[in-house]
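Subject: mismatched residue count in predicted assembly?

I count 777 residues in my input, but I want to confirm that the predicted structure covers every chain. Input:
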Amino acid sequence: MSKVAKGLNKKGTVKKSLLSQIKKNKLAYGLIAPALIAMFVVHLVPIVSGIWMSFLKLNQFTLKKFLRAPFIGLQNYWTVLFDPTSTIRSGFIDALRNTAIFSVICSFLVIGIGLLLAILLNRKFRFQGLARTLLMTPWVVPSFVVGLLWGFMWQQDGVINKLLVDIFHFLPEGPYWLTGPKVLIAIIIPTIWRTVPFVMLMLLAGLQQIPVDYYEAAEIDGANSWQQFRSITLPLLRSVLSIQILNGIINYIYSFNIVAMMFGHGAGFPGKYGDLLMTNINRNSFQIWQFGPGAAATVIVMICVLGLVALWYKVFQDDLVVND
Amino acid sequence: MNKKLLSKLLVSALLVTSLAGCGGTTTNTANASAEGSSASQTGEKTVVTMWIMPNSGTPDEDFMEILKPFLEANPDIEVQPTVLDWGSAWTKLTTAATSGEGPDITQLGTTQIAAIAAMGALEELTPIYDRFGGADAFYEATLPTTKILGAGDEMYAAPWFIDTRALFYRKDVCEAAGVNPETDFETWDSFKEALTKMKDVEIDGKKITPLGMPGKNDWNVIHNFAPWIWGTGGEFIAEDNTTCVINSDEAVKGVQFYTELATEGLLSMAGLEKNSAEIEATFNEGEFGTMFSGAYEIATLRREKPELAEKVGTAPFPAGPEGRYAFFGGSGLSVFKTSKNKEAAYKVIEYLMTPEAQVAYQEKCGNLPTVKAAYETEFVANEEMRKAFKEQADFGKAYPSVAGWGPSETILQKGLSNVWDNVMGVFGAYDPAKTKEILDQTASECTVIYNEQ
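Triage response: the counts match. Full output below for your records.
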């Protein structure tokens, strides 16, 4: 976090005292004040109380005291990471591994497919508007509906196996997609299906900002399309891409709706190979009432994500500077 | 200058509207509470607020219809029901229990009563049981769920309705397989034999799967395992009320008997990824020879597949080697300690416990009444398929009503899901020893929860 601030300061104007700045830009501050207060209430307060909760013995018997529950230091963190008898520990490592695999695969595929589609849609062709609209539809479907529908389609006697076995004869027998390691495929595909349109739209907007002259000049110089893509498109898309990568990392790590809905509308257990961090933490916090360890696990995840964001910032630092 | 003025106006307008928003709510609540307190004094209507679950198709309308005779007889009472969703009810109930901002009456699932009562949020109802005709008026198996197990005899709820699962079977499938439904569904062994006979039956060219049951992705996973665990002499919790014994030899034997129906091809494997509603729909499509389901299925079957309904019969849950048990769940009604209209709330509950109101409500919801007298009415006589459910009421069994039961359900659900995964070959070929290993882990996790305080 501090790195981000430092980076911005480098580019920022001469430092003045906060008060004089506020005085000078009274109107601007007045206009953002309501949003700032709202953000403070809905983000900062819960984050701070969540961190505080991770140091408390907070279960169904102490819930009534809420933030005044007994203080137990780092014990919840120990429970999450090392206590073999705790309910949260037994699945936490599985969930961590699944989330990592899930996030990496989704990140690469979503950006890859999104970029490909954006480049295709950037060309002029007949029914371009129709294609664009159709490609956008998955994004309009709420994510919990996506989980519900795909959960239904993945069933052993569901429509996906009907297609694979009875119609196209790709497989001799329909597999159980919602059981065992194949679960990961069953949650990755709907996530990609739902996320690609948004990424595609952002990349398309980025592509349309690249002046056509560049490509014309490159063509005169004899560059083929791959060279044009590598030397013009990719570098000029870097800032849009970097934001999409960050957006993706955060979204995938905090994925919940699709997985939760796909397994019995929140009732089921996605299994050793399908449980993600958020479904795991949700189950332990709100169903098993381990609010303390649940909060500790959330803080651990938050620290990991902050680390990833810092890494991301280091890699894409230069792309975030607005050229003026 | 003009611009500045305009923006200042805008900002102040924003502030005023947001403040007005806050002001509005406070005055409203102030008014409401003023009305509430003055009601009892001035003889105006007392408003009883109530949380109910989606018990029927149109929950609030159906409920209000049942209340009509009561409201006519008590013009000074008004009842305002709010329908909660089972999924979010947990959170709402615990919030109400901790903050004190709850309704007067709430419906609670039988497994939730002890947990909420242990939080000190519920009014003890023992003193008013006389108004329901005493505890004897209810089926005995419904009463333990109104108490906190091992913490005295105080009752914190009045049992409202029973949810229990009996066997639904296809008469035509039985006939084709040479199964006699009158005798062959009596014990586990004869039941298994009957399923084996159904294995090769075809009806109208369609191959029948003998038994259809939801597996993992369902709210009812534990309910479906419970009678199999009890039937071999197993239990969920030891007598000390703190040790989970789902890994005892008896319990493991029952779990294995049930799950091995799948490995032997008697229970639909594809069904194990479905939830209860989907299994019922598949049964209604004529795919299964038998299934275990609740009494609500009768109404669905009659409404959606009247032709198939004629070919369907019901039988009580078969007897295990160590006894005959059926899962008993359902709901009770409780009064929050913070309620300001307790006397009116008691009156409402008293009315809902009358046999007439119980029968009328279950005609709409499709579950079963809790008061014995309700079964003497035409409720059972009118519907052939309800007879098995009435018989089953005599050997119903509820979960141990300890405070940690609610939180532990999720762990049991996870463990039993893993047992199904074992059966479905996720950990390699099916291994009975692996089932024991999974249940050991489940038991140790649950014991942690039961020991919490």
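Chain B has 18 helices and 14 strands. Marking this ticket as 'not a bug'.
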